[in-house]
Write a structure and sequence with these properties.
The complex is a heterodimer of chains A (about 625) and B (about 290). With about 625 residues, chain A is of the alpha+beta class. Helices cover about 40% and strands about 25% of the residues of chain A. In chain A, strands 1, 2, 7, 8, 9, 10, 18 and 19 form an 8-stranded mixed sheet that branches. Chain A has an 8-stranded mixed sheet with strand order 17-11-14-13-12-4-5-22. Chain A is globular. In chain B, the strands form 2 sheets. In chain B, strands 9-8-7-10-6-1-4-5-11 form a 9-stranded mixed sheet, sandwiched between helices. Chain B has a two-stranded antiparallel ribbon with strand order 2-3. The mean pLDDT of chain B is about 90. The chains are: A alpha+beta (about 625), B alpha/beta (about 290).
Chain lengths: ~625, ~290
């Protein structure tokens, strides 16, 4: 039987960071990823932060990957504007929260996870290879068996011959199968989870900079939304600028969705329909129409010709509106000047219009629809994130950090990864994998993390920074009596600090339902937008794709065997899945709920009361952007 | 002991939407159509890569074609991590039929890896633009190698120097017959489109990803080591290559006529529940007739 020292399960940002950090510590490790390529199963909102804290050391992305992360540019834009928008119908009231975004922050970059993780994978692979380790994709771990006497784990997969390992680092995400196999924790309950929904919208680089009033091509903006866009759910929306796309979506308390089931796509649709957002995403979209009176053969030929021209048109337009690509194409003498590119683009547009009857309409272009369950670290994090010689990191350990406008997951997972790597390296050196030596030491390291502190307590200073930004903009007389009293109470530094100290002592998780309430997420924002907001009007009605169209755009490597099994088709929970499954895999057939797994995007929304597995290696959905 | 492995590949038109162009008369517009490594050649390259990962080996990839055929070699390189790339390109090779092509290829194979004898030669099952599938067997015949066609799986015994191959064969009245053949090396394998390499241990996976990374790096600068050989360098007699070496006479090319419709068809469309119900009702009606 083959063997290796450390096996990391899951090739997301946390798993890859563990591979890189272990390799930096001179330890051999392999990483098993179920997707065909690294990044193909990963989804994020997403902003990757690098933080500094007064509460202790944080292992940031640049600590793990070195300065090349900053020079090789695997991210999208550096977020320099952070705006909170309160919405009510066509009215929007914006508050600048850039100061809170910059709080104890080195930087925050918008990212697309497929691209980012591919870069991480390359770095981690180079480092691991030198020690005889590396990344193995398309492998799904089916079972783990313990050799108690030799304190080894036998890893069984669907694709490879079984092998032995000394330690497993479980980085297999929020729906961790390793946690279930090891019986390390219960499945997360709905109150410990958020459901995130996102669409990626295509928009040329320079148009993004104009619309968001960004002066520097490296910089970007992030907008958060609260109010009626949240459709009376506990949660909020987001819009992040990438290089030449926008990430738009929402993150909602899963229990709030279960209580008031709404199709997840509707959450993102309500964002897209908001006139402020409609105007930000609009673009000129070519509409391809083939004359149906032509013979079938001629229709196919014409369609092929148009596709070819439209590909050229898209490439040329992307080039024209970009900075680096345009400079490069002129430097490489592909084009003599910007004017030449413009005139070629105009000619092509004219040819498409005149010869091929292509119409250009104002609309927006969706590239990808994704969803993901996100663990709330305040409620659901594993207090002891280990089981025997398995360590849990990132989402698998339930470690997402959410507090008001603070939304962090990727950086928390990377910090966990570094801490797990240190604990594992220490155990390998002493050849001691006892729980007392490995698991308890890792638990101590995780407890020392400033992120864990922030999951347990309200940071007074951070709260103060947020209040300073809002107080400046919102006069308390716009709020009703109840909210006015509360507002005045938290505005008083002495009173606020006293209450926060009491709350932190008492355990702020017990007061979460009060803090994360309807008032905070939509009632007050609606009131503020109504009274102080600016009226926005959209110049067009965005043609929002149906869920079927969105699913049809996704790429799948279909598996004929379903990775989900319904346990009891008459359960009320499953009836709710008919509405709550983001890709409508569930439907009602009489009284029975039936499942068609083919469109599943593996978010795990239904996992609580089903037998839920990740698909076999290489199978299932393949996200292009993530 | 490691194996000397040869791969024969071909540059073919890319028939996918957005790449292919047609003339007004419906024939292929070759000038406007993009070209790429043929799909079957890609599978042959994959089989060579598997052999290198599993048994170790020196891979030589070659192609006969115009100078632009080097892009097929580059693509093959990125699949199989070749140690050398040979392009047989000469105006004299133009208009070659399968026999004249085989003449060039067999002589090229003899020149690979500084004239060492190849242990296994891989080729595709057929070409997508020719469909004859004769070049492989003819090259094997000229080399005097055992020819194994439709190979879907194989293993090599390095000590005894033989190959155990599984071939997908057709027999009247049967489907999917798998024939197992043991043959001494050297052999010529025309790989079946159903072939899929399986790397089922962690060490095989790690080796393959290491080689693949090397392959991608080497493919990026393939021009620095690509060798272009003409008839002189290959020491070929001009009488046996190109048009003079091609006994095939193409008398006339006819467009395949459309088959005359003998049955009437009714198009039933339906993508929703109602549509599917209508379709099933229609099928049931027809079955009951």
């Amino acid at each position: 039987m083959e063997n290796c020292d450390v096996t990391i399960v899951g090739g997301g940002s946390a798993g890859l960071a563990a591979l890189k950090h272990l390799s930096s510590l001179g330890k051999q490790a392999i990483l098993l990823e179920a997707g065909k390529e690294i990044g193909s199963k990963n989804v994020s909102g997403g902003i990757l932060y690098s933080k500094k804290s007064n509460n202790g050391k944080i292992y940031n992305v640049e600590d793990i990957y070195g300065e090349s992360f900053l020079t090789e540019y695997p991210y999208e834009r550096k977020i320099t504007k952070y705006i909170l928008n309160a919405t009510s119908k066509d009215k929007v009231f914006s508050i600048d929260l850039t100061e809170s975004h910059n709080y104890q922050t080195n930087f925050g970059y918008s990212v697309l996870l497929n691209k980012l993780n591919s870069w991480f994978a390359q770095e981690a692979q180079n480092a691991a290879e030198r020690l005889g380790g590396g990344i193995i994709t398309g492998v799904h771990v089916r079972a783990l068996k313990w050799e108690e006497k030799r304190s080894k784990i036998i890893v069984q997969t669907d694709e490879l011959e079984e092998f032995e390992t000394k330690v497993v680092i479980a980085a297999d995400g929020v729906n961790s199968e390793i946690a279930e196999m090891a019986n390390a924790r219960e499945k997360f309950s709905p109150s410990e989870l958020y459901q995130g929904v996102k669409v990626l919208v295509k928009l040329p680089e320079k148009i993004i900079e104009e619309r968001f009033e960004i002066n520097n091509s490296e910089e970007g903006a992030a907008h958060l939304f609260a109010g009626d866009v949240s459709l009376n759910l506990i949660g909020g929306g987001f819009l992040y600028t990438n290089r030449d796309s926008l990430s738009i979506g929402g993150v909602y308390h899963y229990d709030s969705l279960l209580e008031n089931p709404i199709e997840p796509a509707e959450i993102v649709n309500s964002m897209l329909k908001n006139p402020l957002i409609s105007e930000l995403i609009k673009d000129e979209v070519p509409i391809k129409e083939i004359d149906k009176t032509l013979s079938k053969e001629q229709q196919v030929r014409k369609s092929f010709a148009i596709t070819k021209l439209l590909n050229n048109w898209n490439e040329l337009r992307q080039l024209y509106y970009s900075h680096k690509l345009k400079e490069k194409s002129i430097a490489d003498r592909k084009y003599s000047s910007e004017d030449e590119i413009k005139s070629k683009l105009d000619n092509l547009t004219k040819r498409l219009t005149d010869e091929y009857n292509i119409k250009f309409k104002t609309n927006y272009i969706e590239l990808e629809y994704t969803t993901k369950l996100v663990p709330d670290g305040k409620r659901g994090r594993m207090k002891k994130p280990y089981h025997k010689n398995i360590l849990f990191i990132g989402d698998a350990a339930g470690r997402g950090l959410f507090f008001g406008p603070r939304i962090e997951g990727l950086n928390v997972g990377m910090d966990d990864a570094a801490r797990a790597s240190i604990a594992v390296a220490r155990s390998l050196d002493k050849n001691n994998f006892d729980s007392d030596y490995l698991g308890e030491f890792y638990t101590r390291l995780v407890e020392e993390s400033p992120y864990t502190v922030d999951m347990k307590e309200i940071d007074k200073q951070y709260l103060n920074v947020i209040l300073n930004s809002t107080r400046k903009r919102i006069p308390s007389n716009v709020l009703g009596l109840k909210h006015k009293l509360l507002f005045n109470l938290v505005s008083n530094d002495g009173l606020r600090n006293f209450f926060i100290t009491m709350i932190n002592k008492y355990g702020y998780t017990r007061l979460l339902s009060f803090i994360e309430s309807e008032d905070v997420y939509f009632k007050v924002p609606i009131k503020i937008a109504d009274k102080l907001g600016t009226l926005n009007t959209a110049s067009y009605i965005p043609q929002i794709p149906t869920i079927q169209d969105r699913v049809a755009k996704l790429c799948y490597h279909e598996d004929n065997i379903s990775h989900i099994k319904i346990l009891d088709s008459s359960k009320n929970f499953l009836r709710k899945m008919v509405v709550l499954c983001p890709t409508k895999c569930y439907s009602l057939e009489g009284d029975e709920v039936i499942l068609q797994h083919e469109g599943c995007i593996e978010c795990g929304t239904c996992s609580k009361e089903t037998e839920w597995r990740h698909p076999r290696g290489e199978k299932g959905v393949i996200f292009k952007y993530g | 002991m490691t194996l000397n492995i040869a791969v024969l590949v071909k540059l073919e038109p890319d028939f996918s939407e957005g790449s292919v162009s047609y003339n007004p008369d419906g024939t292929l517009n070759r000038a406007e159509t993009k070209s790429k490594l043929g799909a079957h050649s890609a599978i042959a390259s994959l089989a060579a890569f598997y052999t290198k990962v599993k048994y170790g080996g020196y891979i030589s990839v070659s192609s006969m074609g115009p100078p632009m055929a080097e892009i097929a070699l580059q693509e093959a390189q990125s699949i199989c991590d070749a140690d050398e790339l040979h392009l047989y390109s000469d105006r004299l090779f133009a208009s070659a039929d399968t026999l004249a092509t085989a003449e060039v290829l067999q002589q090229g194979i003899r020149k690979m890896n500084n004239g060492k004898e190849m242990d296994i030669v891989f080729s595709g099952h057929r070409a997508s633009d020719g469909e004859t599938g004769q070049t492989g067997p003819q090259t094997a015949w000229k080399l005097g190698f055992t020819f194994l066609g439709n190979v879907i799986d194989f293993s090599v015994d390095l000590n005894k120097r033989f190959i155990l191959a599984k071939r997908l064969v057709a027999l009247p009245g049967f489907y999917d017959i798998v024939e197992e053949i043991q043959a001494p090396l050297p052999v010529f394998i025309a790989i079946d489109p159903l072939y899929k390499p399986i790397f089922d241990t962690i060490s095989l996976r790690l080796t393959s990803s290491r080689y693949l990374k090397e392959a991608k790096e080497r493919a990026a600068n393939y021009k620095t080591y690509l060798k272009v050989l003409d008839h002189k360098k290959l020491e070929l007699d001009p009488r046996f290559v190109g048009l003079p070496g091609s006994p095939t006479i193409v008398h006339k090319v006819e467009k395949i006529p459309k088959a005359r419709t003998t049955r009437t068809a009714e198009l039933i469309e339906g993508y929703d529940r109602e549509g599917i119900k209508n379709t099933i009702t229609k099928i049931l009606q027809l079955v009951q007739k």
